[in-house]
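Blinded run. Sample ID left blank on purpose so nobody reads anything into the name before looking at the predicted structure. Input follows.
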Amino acid sequence: IVHTAKPYKKLVDAIEDMGGTVTIQYQNVDAVAARLPSSGLKVLGALPAVTRIEKDRMVELPKLPEEYLEPRPLMVNPSQLLDPPSLAAKIGEIPDGFPSYITSVTGAADTWDENGAGAGAITAVIDTGTEAAHTCLSGRGDVGHPDSRVIEGPDLSPDAGTEFEGSTLPTNNFHGTFVAGVIASRCFIVLDRRVPSDAELATIFQEHLPEENFFTTGQLIMLPLVGLAPESSIYAVKVFPHTGSGVSSSIIESAIDHVITKKKEHTSGLPGGMDIDVINLSLGGSARFDGRTLEDQLVDAATNAGILVVAAAGNDGPAPVSVSTPGTAFSALTAGASSDPVHTRVFWDITFGPGQGHAMYPDDEFRPADFSGRGPLADGRASPDVTATGVFNLSLFPQDGTGFASGTSFSTPAVAGGAALLMGWAEANAPEFGPLVVRNAIIDGASPLSPEWKRRSQGAGYLNVAKSLELMKSGETRDELRQSAPDEDIPNVVLRGGSYSIDIRDLQPARTVDLIFEIEPSTTSVTIDFSGVSIDPNPVPAALPNSIEVYVKGAKRGGLPYL
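Blinded prediction complete.
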């Protein structure tokens, strides 16, 4: 990635003279992507027009540390998935609003009367593509998909030019469709108690869900599978291939650049423009220069164009300083993941049998997920900004499938869905409010978790869309880019040989003790020993035992990868 001012022609010619090729010329930032022989790198860096060079690194869909967190389908038939008109035709009148649990617990459903449940708002999902034909995404859409709220965008992935090309195909990896469902799903799972497998699922859901989050008629139980902005639309931009494998950062950056251009064309009244309100980035890569990479700069360019960018904190926690880029951008709204008792208990009961949900999640607290990326950032800024449910989320799989998945990939669209509601409200009621007003309102309106959780783990707290809307209506949020400092220092232990010891007592569930060790570059090994470890057994039999987990993470994320 070559940072250089426009026009690009002289630089393009110079790169070609070195035997290289310019692959992308960015419109909304001053940079190009290029391939060239390594022998030309120093020559390129010495050109007066070149201000910086960074590696075109790989970007992955965030991975997870435990097998039980991997995606898992919910065993229901596609015919049991009905959109509201189909359900009304089947059973008669259906309740107004029909909130799902996540729309209730985030306060999103409480705002629908004031923002039309996101009607008119558009979220660009830069991901693996989003299936347009999914029942739960039915409604308004583009000419190609008149019965869908998914608008087809470009396929910039390695699938382009193959039989898998297309951003709205059912053959795409599940990830982008799952993300879109958290934002904009609008349907019901219908379980019939006369069917044994349905009866078991119905019992589990009814035991754990609040009464407002399901309803029954006769032997049928209806489970709303509803996103935070269920009347909103999705602009599907595909960057990852159908295999879900990683791609170079230049492709991600090209996608963000494309969305910014669409927004600017709309603002200027040009044909082909689109009034995109939010970008969802459920992806991440190693952060080596927080806030200063091209990807981070494009996030800031999107903000300046009037788009709020919501980015994943990544799944490299619980070690400190583990937030991934582009969650490191200055203006990104960075989403961490938390667990909640309802999603977790439902999943454990389905997976290991009734009763396991309460056995393995006995209290009602919301907790930052172990895997969720932690702050602070390498330049001292606090991160993440907020958290939302990202453990055992229930959303959409392709071909009218449903299932569970975990990760900051799926807490991010919850925050993006809330942002779409607030951006839509602002457009209709306070058009002078830009994305920074909404960003600040979401941060200030978040509900803090237990005070035992540090700012670097939970951000400002759990997403609370209703409180954020109240702050916007009061005029208390300002149109400014705010940065906050971490809430406490992390002990920094300098080791020049020898040893260090610490006595840890009464470590409560999901809590951590964080230490940063500074060692000589020549150190070949560090040994960690434990003694006197005592772990209380579960009071009732549990499928997974209590344990103490140790995470060791290197600090190789703070270098300056440019010439």
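Unblinding after everyone has recorded impressions. The chain has a mean pLDDT of 92.
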